[in-house]
TrEMBL record:
Provenance organism: Dehalococcoides mccartyi (strain ATCC BAA-2266 / KCTC 15142 / 195)
A Pfam entry, by short name: HTH_24
Protein name, per record: Transcriptional regulator
Length: 111
């Protein structure tokens, strides 16, 4: 009899993608003990709903997490994915500050 866990396969795949942006579906499958085909289906689900974005880099794929979306279950929609993943050990990337030179102001021109 298989033991149960608190996290769904979708949550496990998302957490692996968050911590290892260049991990392969095969590596995830080996770690969470599901088929590679199941991992690819979950990745497609996550991408279709906007939770992840994929970018081709050389022969591999780099994954980026959208930390601003909420959990899907109606009881937990106030929790955003970034906060959930941080609870699982994910470290948020620091966002680059907007350079002051690029900020447009509404000041009147100097005379």
């Amino acid at each position: 009899m298989a033991s149960w866990t608190f996290l769904t396969n979708h949550a496990l795949v998302l957490s692996f993608l968050a911590r290892h942006s260049r991990i392969t579906a095969r590596e995830i499958a080996e770690n969470i003990h599901i088929t590679e085909r199941a991992v690819r289906k979950i990745i497609a689900d996550l991408e279709a709903e906007g939770y992840i974005a994929k970018k081709k880099e050389g022969r591999g794929i780099k994954y980026r997490i959208n930390p601003d979306l909420s959990l899907r279950h109606e009881s937990y929609q106030e929790i955003i994915i970034g906060d959930f993943l941080e609870g699982l050990g994910w470290k948020r990337r620091k966002r680059k500050p907007v350079a002051e030179a690029n900020v447009i102001t509404a000041e009147a021109p100097a005379k």
